[in-house]
Amino acid sequence: MRIVSLLPAATDIVAELGLSAQLVGRTHECDWPPRDVASVPVVTGADLDQDRLTSREISDAVGGSAHSGSSLYTLDTEALAALRPEVVLTQDLCDVCAVSYESVSRTVRLLDAETRVLSLEPRTLDDVLDCLVTVGTLLGVRERAEQRRAELSARLDRVRAAVAGRDRPRVVAIEWLDPLWPAGHWVPEQITAAGGEPLIAAPGEHTKPMTWEAVRASHPDTLLVLPCGFPPERTLRERELLTGLPGWQDLPAVRADRVWVLDGPAYFNRPGPRVVRGAEVLAHVLHGVRAGEAVTPAVARRL
Known about the structure:
Blueprint: E1 3-5, H1 8-16, E2 23-25, H2 34-37, E3 44-46, H3 55-61, E4 73-75, H4 77-83, E5 87-91, H5 101-109, E6 116-120, H6 125-138, H7 142-163, E7 170-177, E8 180-182, H8 187-193, E9 197-198, H9 212-218, E10 222-225, H10 232-236, H11 240-243, H12 252-255, E11 259-262, H13 264-267, H14 275-287, E12 300-302
Parallel strand pairs: 1-2, 1-5, 5-6, 7-9, 7-10, 10-11
Antiparallel strand pairs: 3-4, 7-8, 11-12
């Protein structure tokens, strides 16, 4: 089957199902597993240079707090058509972070082919794991997908067991630096699974910008910094957006040296199977508990 993935999380799912060899197209941000996707043709581009622009400039360019402006993605319709996909995987959760279902559907209608378009819209951890089965069923590997879902769910249960009975630190997770934006959807559940108490955002919530006063008033014991689309080194370039805020030094998380910069794109921003690894990472961050492979500074480091 000829598969085009227009969502990094969907590419992760295809890989998890052992079907990377069937990928004929991907986005410019699909980067995992590196060896599997490196040679797959890219059918998207970015209008904005995220390495050059500041967080505020990126936010303004895509419509600010309303997220009503342009997407960060552009779709090369000619390249897509040339690949003759049988299945296109996309999303309808965020018009900024990936090519929207509506945009893909319009494009596919112009193709002289019977291409199936599947839109993934997970909001919770269970939704994310269910996407494995949804995609696996469409691609003809439902039994394998159900097995992988069960294995990932068991890993989450092991994380919960490893931190059971420990004090739960109060946690604020920041998904964007300017404006400040709390991480919602599945991230609060990742925090809970790892033995923390998520603040400000609720499980499954499609969040809005928050004030710095709200963060200070919540008195977090731990602050997680995981901006959408930013690896840790990119996040650290704008650390002053946080450290320069009034009362920064008075925050309990700062006083206790419990401000962590995490690899958001790999383990927290994308609704793919690696969110389970994200919960394992948080067990280390919140409690010093090892769950799965050892956590390296490339994944989590103190600010």
